[in-house]
Write a structure and sequence with these properties.
Strand content: 15-25%
Helix content: 25-40%
Radius of gyration: 23 Å
Number of helices: 15
Strand order of the largest sheet: 3-2-1-4-19-18
Bound molecules: flavin-adenine dinucleotide
Number of strands: 19
Low-confidence stretches: none
Shape: globular
Structural class: alpha/beta
Distance between the termini: 33 Å
Largest sheet: 6 strands, mixed
Length: 435
């Protein structure tokens, strides 16, 4: 019998477990570990609460843990509760699927001022992530800025601009809904260092901005290259640019809020009297390689809340080689070292959609299978040894039944018509279990 530990229960972890289960069948036991008592990673804490159809992918993940060879072991942090070396002693292979939960820094003066938050923090706050429940982002000013030109920036701008009614059917956490309802923010500026052709925003997410109850997108037609230049774009990107062009061609309406796309704008510094008041940006242009080149012209964008959505990095784990530039574990095709692998964002860095993690997980599972074929036997203890170690250390691990009990209680607490009542403290999750 082989024993595999998949560390991380986001999409990459589940797809890898699914693939290992298919490859090894009854010849392996697969444990999916997570630092939280409940699984799903960014499906729970990242994907926007008003995108419920995407969050529904978790139902497919549930099926994986219903297989007899796959177990969930939650509330265990690898790197502090148990080391990777210890896991390697207990399991035939360890697959790190821990994602990239840390915000990349802007690297400009003023980024530590109150009022400047990373998108992982802000997104975590409105999604009920226990680490960010107390973020309390300042929503009392009239202007906010979101730095970045990807879908996460769009999520943040949209969430800041929606009305309470527009969150109907979402699972936004109550504390965020209440605070957003009281928000005074009327203008959200979305800053991008380069132009419309260089965005990493997908058509569906962009188009949504054209249908908000009280907010309109504002795009400057002067930012676009000539229309013929769009022909060279791949079809999805061309669709996105068409949507932006439509926004630019739409006359201003009377909606009270605006989401302003400020292209060719590079953040230089954040200033304010003890807290963020505005961001100084430098006007840029594209150089011959398509990179942003400063023009020397600077101007101020008012913002008392600044959300930086410029990418993520995986955390360091003792003894695991790290690729500083890529913000991920150093690996070759998913292999880090003997019996140690990485998948998902921990392998590739923070790019791609949920679906991108599927081929990734399958590829790494194949690699594992090629190194220890089904039928070959290992002699490690797996979950039995891990649970003994956790008990010795007083770590209260959760299992499949615990996780479902927690979710049932959460659903039971929700009042009709109100957002789902989520627990935002790990202690509360565990209290539900009577421990
Ligand atoms: C704000 C945001 C919105 C997104 N929206 C979409 C969308 O609408 N559509 C789409 O297709 N994609 C979206 N994505 C991308 C998608 O979420 C990622 O592709 C996917 O979640 C990456 O999967 P992963 O398993 O590598 O990482 P994650 O989903 O981050 O999972 C990592 C897991 O590892 C656990 N973990 C971390 N450290 C440890 C540790 N030391 N010990 C044990 N466990 C640990 C975490 O708790 C987590 O459960 C979004 C991403 C973000 C950030």
């Amino acid at each position: 019998m082989r024993h595999f530990a998949v560390v991380g229960s986001g999409p990459a972890g589940f797809y890898t477990a699914e693939a290992l289960e298919k490859a090894f069948g009854e010849n392996a036991r697969i444990d999916i570990l997570d630092r939280y008592p409940v699984p799903y990673g960014l499906i729970r804490f990242g994907v926007a609460p008003d995108h419920q159809s995407l969050k529904a992918v978790s139902k497919r993940y549930d099926k994986v843990t219903e297989s007899p060879g796959v177990d969930f072991i939650g509330n265990v942090t690898i790197g502090s509760d148990v080391s990777v070396d210890e896991l390697l002693g207990l399991y035939d292979a360890v697959i790190l699927a821990i994602g990239a939960p840390h915000d990349r820094k802007l690297g400009i003066p003023g980024e530590d001022l109150p009022g400047v938050v990373g998108s992982a923090e802000f997104v975590g706050w409105y999604n009920g992530h226990p680490d960010f429940a107390d973020l309390d982002p300042p929503l009392g000013g009239t202007h906010a800025a979101v730095i970045g030109n990807g879908n996460v920036a769009l999520d943040c701008a949209r969430i800041l601009s929606k009305t309470q009614d527009e969150f109907g059917g979402s699972d936004i956490v109550g504390h965020a809904l209440g605070a957003l309802d009281q928000s005074s923010i009327r203008t959200v500026t979305i800053l991008g260092r380069r132009g419309p052709h260089q965005i990493a925003m997908t058509p569906k997410e962009l188009a949504e901005l054209g249908h908000l109850a009280e907010a309109s997108p504002v795009v400057d037609a002067a930012d676009f290259p000539p229309a013929e230049a769009d022909d060279a774009l791949e079809p999805g990107q061309r669709k996105s640019i068409n949507i932006l062009r439509d926004f630019a061609a739409t006359p201003a309406d009377s909606k009270p809020k605006r989401m302003v796309f400020d292209f060719f704008a590079r953040p230089v510094r954040i200033e304010g009297d003890g807290r963020a008041e505005h961001i100084v940006v430098e006007r840029t242009e594209l150089d011959e390689n398509g990179a942003a080149r400063g023009t020397g012209e600077e101007y101020e964008v008012p913002a008392s809340l600044i959300v930086s959505a410029i990418g993520y990095a995986s955390p360091h784990i003792e003894g695991v080689p790290y690729d500083e530039r890529g913000g991920k574990f150093a690996n070759e095709g998913g292999r880090i070292a003997d019996r140690l692998f990485a998948v998902g964002w921990a392998r590739r860095g923070p790019t791609g959609t949920i679906g991108t993690n599927r081929p990734d997980g399958y590829e790494v599972a194949e690699l594992v299978a090629s190194e220890m074929p089904a039928g070959s036997s290992g002699d490690r203890e797996g979950a039995v040894g891990l649970k003994r170690l956790l008990a010795e250390r007083g770590v209260m691990a959760t299992d499949y039944d615990d996780w479902h009990k927690i979710e049932e209680v959460e659903v039971g607490r929700a009042r009709p018509g109100s957002p789902r009542e989520k627990f935002v403290r790990v202690e509360d999750w565990l209290k539900t279990l009577g421990r």
